[in-house]
Amino acid sequence: MNEQAVRPGVSFVCPVYNKEAYLEAVCAAMAAQEGGFDREFIFVDDGSRDRSVEVVRDVTREVRLEQMRKDFVANASHELRSPLTVISGYVDELAEDRALAPEWREPVADMRRQAQRMREIVEDLLELSRLESGERPPQWEEVLPSEIVEDVVASFAGLAGRRSIVLTRSSHSAPAVITDADRLRRVMENLVENAIKYTPEGGRVEIVAGPGSDAGTVLEVRDNGPGIATEHLPRIFERFYRVDKARSRELGGTGLGLAIVKHLAEGMGASVTVASEPGKGTVFTVVVPAGAEHASGARPAS
Ligand SMILES: Nc1ncnc2c1ncn2[C@@H]1O[C@H](COP(=O)(O)OP(=O)(O)OP(=O)(O)O)[C@@H](O)[C@H]1O
Ligand SMILES: [Mg+2]
User: Fold this and answer.
1) Burial of 165 by CB count in 10 Å (0-12 exposed, 13-18 middle, 19+ buried)?
2) Residue 170 to residue 150: CA distance in whole angstroms
3) Considering only CA atoms, which residue is closest to atom 31 of ligand 1?
4) 227: left (phi > 0), else alpha (psi -120 to 50), else beta?
5) Ligand 2 centroid distance, CA of 110 (Å)
6) Do 238 and 288 form a contact (C-beta atoms < 8 A)?
7) CA 112 to each of CA 88, 90, 143, 250: distance values in angstroms, whole numbers, following the listed order
8) Which residues of the chain have a pLDDT value below 70?
9) Which residues of 292-301 are buried (b: 16+ CB within 10 A; e: fewer)?
10) Where are the domains of the chain?
């Protein structure tokens, strides 16, 4: 194998004549690296031999940088937590102080809101860091999707009512799955909260649960709100990505909700996708596998 292949950041092309010797060389090179390789095979049929060319890209540097980014976010959020709690505590006291001069009431109320917002951002970032580090594995149990849907509808009935949104559900034929109930509930809460938040007053939000392929279940959150333009769709699961920053901020959003949703879902083997038509509405689809392989550690749904 080409020695240069193990130098960080180097891409190289290696002709392969003897597959076994080649694989041995790649395994040895990979074992010697902390990071990893991106590999792509291009098969060349020269008519005489079983021959291929592999393009290997050493991604050790990217893996390290990504780890540094994760550590930085986790550490910075952690360090910000205590000072923010102290500031919030004093601002709360100040806001409730009857002796506060009238001209300070509005600024202090604003400080209180902003401090609360900062605390929510820090908590969301810490949550993302925990999910990324995999420090809390999913708690497998048998879950009836209809129960989750019922809980979520009950939690959001008040908010939907205040915004004159009709919130409905249908979940009769969704089979039980082995998954993490708490995570699935949080995924659905985030999606339903968004649907209610971004749909104008008088709109409709519907939660539908039904059978998926391979004995799993599919949960959908549909709304008839403003929709999301195609160019934004690939990015809305990124951290801090908001389609309409001003409007989202005004509604109290930081753009971390869907990033958390994606991590929560992927951490339990589920997937979340979005389809939307501007002016017509948005559908978020969560596909939850049956999870039979986790059955031994699962508790029955209570
Ligand atoms: N149902 C929806 N209809 C229209 N736009 C949506 C919908 N759901 C999400 N979006 C858009 O995707 C963006 C990202 O959503 P996300 O939940 O990550 O952030 P947020 O709601 O702004 O803030 P947070 O959830 O952190 O409070 C939102 O700002 C909004 O622009
Ligand atoms: Mg949100």
Assistant:
1) buried
2) 9
3) 243
4) left
5) 21
6) no
7) 7, 9, 39, 16
8) 1-58, 297-302
9) eebeeebeee
10) 3-58, 62-133, 141-297
Neighbours of 164 (CB within 10 A): 10
Atom of ligand 1 nearest to the CA of 237: 18
Residues 57-95 pLDDT 10s:
667 777 888 888 889 999 999 999 999 999 999 999 999
Ligand 1 centroid to residue 249 C-alpha, Å: 10
Q: What is the CATH number of domain 62-133?
A: 1.10.287.130
Pocket of ligand 1, beta carbon within 6 A:
194-195, 198, 223, 225-226, 228, 236, 241-244, 248, 253-258, 282
Say yes or no: domain 141-297 is CATH 3.30.160.390: no
Alpha carbon nearest to ligand 1 atom 10, residue: 194
Q: Amino acid letter at 174? A: A
Mean pLDDT value across the chain? 85
Q: Give the strands of the sheet with 37-43, arranged side by side.
A: 11-16, 52-58, 37-43
User: Ligand 2 mean position to 247 CA, how many Å?
Assistant: 12
Give the tokens for residue 272.
């979340």
The predicted pLDDT at position 39 comes to: 58
Task: Put residue 110 in one of left, alpha, beta given phi > 0 → left and psi -120 to 50 → alpha.
Answer: alpha
